[in-house]
């Protein structure tokens, strides 16, 4: 959780410095969700993510150097510097893309879950999306298909209350996004997304159900993003859409501070916290150096990797 927070703080300063171009959407405030979920899945399980995806990638085992290089548009990055913050992908880690198109990681996850079901393994797929994305048609179509086919797919809605500057109350007909899952016959629950243990417990149950062939679950995590929709937002928005008091009230419920209080009760002392901070700082700064020392792609590379060179047809036998 600390790594995610410090990574996204540093990513924002790199935007200010002009080292990272394109938009960076910070995950700060939401760390308990990605970590709680990832704590109960395996390396061979898959995730799809959205535009606010650094936390999801780090929690799934993403390498800081390769992520920093991708943000900085360097050839050493996860997508050879051609994807940037919103398109980090690693097939080796089961990360089928962070995704700039709102809601569109969800049908990709549906495909991954379908493939695993078809192959007969017990892998699960997690799809992370926001409450804003839950208004997209593709999300609803995916819920319907996942429910009908009992696919091993876990819908994780991170309800941070805003889609850009739009409050969920003004865009969504239901109090809880979990209601939408129930409409498709999917077991759906609301959890405190600022509590890593609550998220973990919900995820454990959902993963078990999916591995047992009992189908999808929707977990709505109530959370909050501390900063603007994207790094730099304060400079471009003329009118704030939420008050400082509102932001502060959520900061009082900070997921890292809550975890820290728990760890103190378990006997972790300040020295250990300081060591964690120092280690995280070192890894991130090494990542920045790695990024800055890496080359940018050449113009010729623009068309490389745009088309698949190998096409595999999926067998239809065995699927009823
Ligand atoms: C299909 C599509 N529509 C609109 C946008 C512009 N857009 C980018 S992020 C965003 C808000 C998404 O809100 P939410 O899904 O709640 O995620 P959050 O940003 O709160 O994490 C919008 C409207 C987009 N990128 N793609």
TrEMBL record:
InterPro entries reported for this sequence: DH_E1, PDH_E1_Alpha_Subunit, THDP-binding
Cofactor annotation: thiamine diphosphate
UniProt protein name: Pyruvate dehydrogenase (Acetyl-transferring) E1 component subunit alpha
Dehydrogenase E1 component domain location: 2-299
Gene3D superfamilies: 3.40.50.970
Domain of life the protein comes from: Bacteria
Species of the source: Oceanobacillus arenosus
Matches recorded under Pfam families: E1_dh
Molecular function as annotated in GO: pyruvate dehydrogenase (acetyl-transferring) activity
Presence of the UniProt keyword Protease in the record: no
Gene Ontology BP terms: pyruvate decarboxylation to acetyl-CoA
Keywords: Oxidoreductase, Pyruvate, Thiamine pyrophosphate
């Amino acid at each position: 959780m600390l790594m995610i927070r410090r990574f996204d703080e540093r990513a924002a300063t790199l935007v200010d410095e002009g080292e990272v171009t394109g938009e960076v959407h910070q995950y700060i405030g939401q760390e308990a969700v990605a970590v709680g979920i990832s704590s109960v899945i395996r390396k061979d399980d898959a995730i799809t993510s959205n535009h606010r995806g650094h936390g999801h990638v780090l929690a799934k085992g993403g390498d800081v150097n390769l992520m920093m290089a991708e943000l900085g548009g360097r050839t050493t990055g996860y997508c050879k510097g051609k994807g940037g913050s919103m398109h980090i992908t690693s097939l080796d880690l089961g990360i089928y893309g962070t995704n700039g198109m709102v809601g569109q990681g969800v049908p990709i996850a549906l495909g991954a879950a379908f493939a695993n079901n078809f192959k007969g393994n017990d892998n699960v797929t997690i799809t992370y999306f926001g409450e804003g994305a839950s208004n997209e048609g593709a999300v609803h179509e995916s819920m319907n298909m996942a429910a009908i086919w009992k696919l091993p797919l876990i819908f994780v809605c991170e309800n941070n209350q805003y889609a850009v500057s739009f409050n969920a109350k003004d865009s969504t007909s239901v109090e809880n996004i979990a209601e939408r899952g129930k409409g498709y016959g999917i077991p759906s629950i609301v959890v405190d997304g600022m509590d890593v243990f609550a998220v973990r417990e919900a995820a454990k149950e959902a993963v078990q159900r999916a591995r047992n062939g009992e189908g999808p679950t929707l977990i709505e995590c109530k959370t909050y993003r501390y900063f603007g929709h994207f790094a730099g937002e304060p400079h471009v928005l003329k009118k704030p859409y939420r008050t400082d008091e509102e932001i502060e009230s959520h900061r009082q419920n900070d997921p890292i501070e809550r975890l820290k209080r728990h760890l103190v009760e378990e006997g972790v002392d300040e020295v250990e916290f300081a060591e964690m901070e120092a280690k995280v700082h070192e890894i991130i700064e090494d990542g920045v150096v790695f990024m800055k020392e890496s080359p940018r792609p050449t113009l010729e590379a623009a068309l490389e990797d745009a088309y698949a060179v190998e096409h595999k047809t999926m067998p239809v036998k065995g699927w009823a």
